[in-house]
Amino acid sequence: MSVSSNEAYTTWLAADMKEMEGGSGFQTQSLTVSVDGKNFYPFIAQGETVTGQNLTARVPLEINTDSETVTRVAELYLDGNVVLGRYATADQAPAKFITAGDMEVSLSFKQADGSTDYEYADESHTIYLQDNPKIAASYQLKGDGFSFTGADQLVWSSSDETVAQIAADGSITPTGKAGEVYFTLTAKNGGAEGREVTVNTETLKLGVGLTRFCPSPTTSSGPPTARRSPSIGPATCATKTAARKPLLPSPLPAAC
Fold first, then answer.
1. How far apart are CA 127 and CA 119, in angstroms?
2. Which of 150, 156, 139 is nearest to 101 (CA)?
3. What is the reported pTM?
4. How far apart are CA 160 and CA 54, in angstroms?
5. Residues whose CB falls within 8 Å of the CB of residue 82, separated by 6 or more in sequence, listed in order
């Protein structure tokens, strides 16, 4: 909307405008624009004066859930009454929503220095926290052109935050508590009704309070082998021998 240098028009429009918070510009009070007759948005002029400027109204559009392009019609309102129908139009293409099948999630486990993959010690695939592993979740979208892919639209969450928490970038922080936990990626799809979808990672097993490796005693068949100890501390790696009862002296013969 262009504001001319017409003095009378400018005077009327200036009287209808109010300075925005922070002094970044002015916005209209009674003159608004709407595409649905329910939600009204003001015109805005940036700068210190109204004269000679273009006024702009930003009108958020509802998500187009149809399969075809729809035409949105903007109308001018004065004090809530239409003063100019079909002031402007905009063609809106259908939204392309993410489905659960479009999301692929995975977990990565690295050694403390982050340079190599974490090595499991046994078939339980437990991550032991005293190893200080670096754990992260990531995702890939199969396809392109999706309408809602921002950080606020693809959100991670933890199934048990008392065991591990996950940040927006997928980095995972264990709390120090042993347990099992998985992580969920939610595609909000702009908040469109019935369009939110989720997908879960594999379950992560976290162990606490176990020594990682202990050498088994040497046997006649070969050198020591690595085994996981069920207790804490180096004492668990020591070879234990059966305790011997102390030898007691034989009872003295009874005195005659």
1. 9
2. 139
3. 0.69
4. 53
5. 37, 75, 76
DSSP 3-62: --S-HHHHHHHHHHEEEPTTSSEEEEEEEEEESSSS--EEEEEESS--TTPBPB---PPP
Give 197-223 pLDDT, tens digit per residue.
999 999 999 998 655 544 444 444 444
What value does the mean pLDDT of the chain take? 81
Cβ 196 vs Cβ 188: under 8 Å = yes
Amino acid identity at 139: Y
Only one residue has tokens 């695939």, namely 125
Which amino acid is located at 197 in the chain? V
Cβ–Cβ < 8 Å for 10, 28 = no
Q: In 3D, which of 159, 163, 158 has the Cα closest to residue 178? A: 163
Q: What is the pLDDT of residues 88-118, one digit of tens each?
A: 899 999 999 999 999 999 999 999 888 889 9
**Phi and psi of 236, rounded to 5°?**
-70, -15
Helix and strand tally (H, E) in the chain? 1, 17
Up-side HSE of residue 59: CA atoms within 13 Å toward CB?
A: 26
Residue 179: which residues within 8 A CB-CB, separation 6 or more?
160, 162, 163, 206
Are 72 and 63 in contact by the 8 Å Cβ rule? The answer is no
Contact 150, 158 (CB under 8 A): no
Instruction: Please tell me whether residue 227 adopts helix, strand or coil conformation.
Output: strand
- Under a CB-based contact definition with an 8 Å cutoff, are residues 228 and 122 in contact? yes
